[in-house]
Amino acid sequence: MKKEWIWSFAIGLIAIGAAIWYNRPAGSDFSYGKCGTGYDETFSDNYNDARRLFLESARIWGANRLVSVPLDKQDRAGLVTDFAVKKGRSDRVLIHLSGTHGVEGFAGSAIQSAFLRSSKSQPWDPSKDPTVIFVHAVNPYGFAALRRTNENNVDLNRNFLTDEERSDRLSADPNQHGYEDFDWYLNPTYVPGYFDVFSIAGVVLQRAWRGEESTRKALLTGTYHRKRGLWYGGDKLEPSAKLLPETLTSILGGARGLAKVEKVILVDAHTGLGPSGYDTLAVPEIAVPLAKEIFCSESDHVVGMGDGEMVGYDELVGDVGVGVLRSLFPRAAVAVPVCHEFGTYPPLLISIVMRYENAATHWAPMMRSHAALWLRDMFYRVSSCDWRRKLLDHGGMIISDALNFLK
């Protein structure tokens, strides 16, 4: 216990420094630099450029079909989710997602574009290779606006619920896992300033008192009652959460096509969790042995929800991978949802910037652009050539491992 308090005190000092850091004059750490062949051309700093690169890369790859679905039916905002498809065996399918958490889509988009370009000369046999679907910008609003959430402040990775699950969450005690105990810290009704170091120190002490696992569970399980809160799961299925499975169903040939699928892997690319440059493959606990077999090049990075870097996630419901596979492929013999996390910065620093951006969005819109740049930089360490290299290398290996297994 003494060691826990000492460690928390040290984290508190770091947090105070971080609080001062994020109050420095507005600016962005975004910088391309030159990292060498293969590590420069697929990174972008805005949604429109990322989308252009993805579509261009999909054509280079030789996609059989490109499907672009606007978030708004009238496409008034120009926000689109794109699907690049290469048809193969109807009984085996690989789905790769980027941008479920909006601003995290920059990294996922870079992985997709880099893989598509590097695979252009690879032989493709539709009778042996699986059908592959790359989905770009699951949450186009968050991607374009530099938010993790969508246009309704909903975290899509907590929104893919069944009607029964949603009813249970909405009727449950809001503090079932301890979220309300941290509301004072997570969701201030002001934009945090220098004086807020006391709040940060307070939450660090509360973490020491509760323990790491209990604290992470309280925060990460999220809320279904505070519409302006961090990690808000929503009170209904969001438009993007409807668009994704509906379009996948259409691409795969409707109900008959879905029924033919025997093996399916869904990889959902995220950033922020874990040490910088280190990736984690999180799967349901029951799927860990199979996932270690599938992702043989990174088997030691596979963890179950609630283990390793995923401590505190075991009570989370509504994530995209599980929701899509459960609803579309209930009869598949193999259906593995993978949350591919790629580390950037320490979690406390990320939470500080997340709450800063969320408070600015809801209570001080004039500070929103300032906060948005910092949020992007927290989840996108593009200024680091080493981070860029590891992101593309590991992201590509995960896709290749999944393809090899499905063959």
Commentary on this structure:
With 407 residues, the chain is of the alpha/beta class. Helix content is 44%, strand content 14%. Strand 6, helix 11 and strand 7 form a beta-alpha-beta unit. It is globular and about 60 Å long.
SSE topology:
Elements: H1 2-21, H2 47-61, E1 65-70, E2 80-86, E3 89-97, H3 105-118, E4 130-136, H4 140-145, H5 163-171, H6 183-186, H7 197-210, H8 212-220, H9 239-251, H10 254-260, E5 263-272, E6 279-283, H11 288-294, E7 302-304, H12 320-328, E8 334-343, H13 347-363, H14 368-379, H15 385-406
Parallel strand pairs: 3-4, 3-5, 5-8, 6-7
Antiparallel strand pairs: 1-2, 2-4, 6-8
Low-confidence stretches: 19-29
Major sheet details:
8 strands, mixed
Query: What proportion of the residues is helical, as a percent range?
Result: 40-55%
Structural class call reads alpha/beta
What characteristic shape results from the CA principal axes? globular
Distance between the termini: 50 Å
Strand order of the largest sheet: 1-2-4-3-5-8-6-7
Q: Using DSSP, what is the number of strands?
A: 8
Taking all Cα atoms into account, the compactness measure Rg is 21 Å
SSE string, helices as H and strands as E: HHEEEHEHHHHHHHEEHEHEHHH
**Approximately how much beta-strand content do the residues carry?**
5-15%
Q: Give the overall average pLDDT.
A: 90
Counting DSSP H or I runs of 4 or more residues, the number of helices is 15
